[in-house]
Amino acid sequence: MKITTVVLLTLAPYTLVGFSAVRAADPAAERALFHDIYKELVETNTSHSAGDTTLAARRAAKRLRDAGFTEAEVRVVEPFPSQPLARPHR
């Protein structure tokens, strides 16, 4: 349930930013951009058993950066970082 919520919350601004980048363009260009964004997200395996929601978030972050957001405005938070946390030696 939480993963679905994160993906949905990620998708909304992801799509809106894509549309704002081509606001002055014709409706066909808007549809094509929406199709590309949606296709990329749907084709990313985010299933609990074998998927990668972090990959989907990284792809969304790239779209946001491409639309003009800065590194400081876009941050991907991994639920389980790939690098283990450093532990002090005892």
Notes on the protein architecture:
- This protein is mainly alpha-helical.
- The protein has one domain (2-66).
- It is 57% helix and 0% strand.
- It contains three helices and no strands.
Total DSSP helices: 3
Mean pLDDT: 76
Largest sheet: none
- The counted number of beta strands is 0
Rg over CA atoms, rounded to whole Å, is 16 Å
The helical percent reads: 55-70%
The dominant shape is flat
Distance between the termini: 39 Å
Order of helical and strand elements: HHH
Strand content: under 5%
SS-derived structural category: mainly alpha
Number of domains: 1
Low-confidence parts, pLDDT < 50 over ≥5 residues? 4-8
Chart the SSEs and their pairings:
Elements (H helix, E strand, L loop, with lengths): L1 H20 L5 H17 L9 H14 L24
Helix pairs in contact: 1-2, 1-3
Task: Give me a quick take on this structure.
The chain is mainly α and 90 residues long.
Could you list some keywords that capture this structure?
0% strand; mainly alpha; flat; 3 helices; 90 residues
